[in-house]
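Side project, low priority. Logging it here so it doesn't get lost.
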Amino acid sequence: MRYCFSLIFAFCCFCLHAQTTETDSLVTVKRVDYADSIRQMRRNIWKSTITPQMSAYNQYRLFAPSTFYHAIAKHNLYLYDSEQDIYDQAVDDALLNIYLNHPEYITNSEQQLRDAGGVDETITSPIRTEVNLEKKEAPTPQEVIDAPVDVVITKPNFWTYKGDQYLQFLQNYISGNWYKGGESNYSMVASVTLEANYNNKQKVKWDNKLEMKLGFQTSKADTMHSLKTSEDLVRLTSKLGLQATKNWYYTLSVLGYTQFMRGFKKNDIRTYSDFMSPFNLNISIGMNYTVNWLKKKLTGNIQLSPLAYNFRYVGRDALITRYGLKEGHHTLHDLGSMCTVDLTWKFSDNINWKTRLYGYSTYHRAELEWENTFTFQFNKYISSKLFIYPRFDDATTRDGHHAYWQYKEYASLGFNYSF
C-alpha cells in the first residue's frame, strides 16, 4: 500500500508539471493551491484529457503489485533520447525511483509474471467463498489452586561403584624360585575386584580398590599335599588426591597386601608363605596423573611418590629371614621412593589389557612387580585370560638359576561378570 501511494503521487506530480509546460494540448496552470492541483489530477487521470495518450500497459503498472520490469532499465540506459511520450516516461521514472531507493518493496519480477501466464479465460463469473462467522467467546480463566507443593532437594552423590568377578580354569606355570611357592599344573582361580571412588568434580578425589584372588590346584606328583594354592592375594589400594591441574593431583596413597592361606611347594612340608607372612604396607606422598589417551581407550593413572614409607610384617618365625628381616625381628621399616602405573587399554570391544607396574626402592634394596592380564571376551559371561607376572626382589634369597627374578604365567578359560 505504501508503495502504491508513493508511485501514484510521483506520477501525479509529473503530470501536473507536464500540463503547465505543454500549452498546445493542455490547459496552462499558473497558480493553484494544493487542493486544486489534486482535483485537477483526478480529472486528468480518470477523464479523457490524459487517458487517450496513456497505454493500458502503463495504467496496469501503476496499480499492479510491485514488480521489476526490464524495459524501465532498458529505456534509461539508451545512449540517445527515447521515443517514449512524457506520460510513459513519468511512469518509468516513478518506478525507477522505487527500484533505487526502496528495493525492499519489490516483490515480483517480470519473468515471474510471464511464467505465471495470462488470465484464465475459462473463469466467467466471480469466485466467492462462503465464510461462516461464529461468535468468539473469551477464554474462561483457569482457576488457580492454592495447594502446598512438595519440594524435594536431593543431595548430589559423588560416589561411584564398580566391580569385576571371574571364575577361571587354567594352565599354570611358575618358576622354581617363585617367592610364594607353587608349581606348574592345571588348576582353577576365582577373583573379585571391588571399587568405590569419590569425586566431587571440584578438587577432591578418593579412589579405593579391593582385590581378592584365590586359586587351588591338585597334583598327582605331590604325595604330601592333596590341595595347594596357586593364586592367593588380598590387596587394598587407597588414594586421596587434591587437584593441582587438570590431570595432576597431590596424592596421599596407602597400599597394603597379604594372602589368605599357606603356600607350599611340591613334596615339601615347609610353609613358604601364610596370612600376614608377609604383610606389606606402603604409605607414600607424591603426584598422581590421570591417563585418558587414545580417545578414552587407554585409561588409568600414574603415581609418582618421591617419599614413601614401607612397613613389612612377618608373623611366622621360620619365614623372617626369607623376606629380608633380621633374625628375631618380625617387622621391617624403611624409607624410599615408589612408582605405580595402573592402566587399562581397550583394543576393541572384545579384547583389553590391564597392566600394573609397581616399583619400590630404598636405594639399598629394590622391589619390582609387573602384572599383565589380557582378556578375550567371547560374550557377556564367557572369557579367556592370559596372565603374565614377572617380579624382581633382591631382599629374598638369591636363586642359583633365576637370581632375584621370579616369573609366573597362566592361561585360562571360564566365567566372567562385571558391573
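Brief comment: The first strand starts at residue 67 and ends at 68.
Revisit when time allows.
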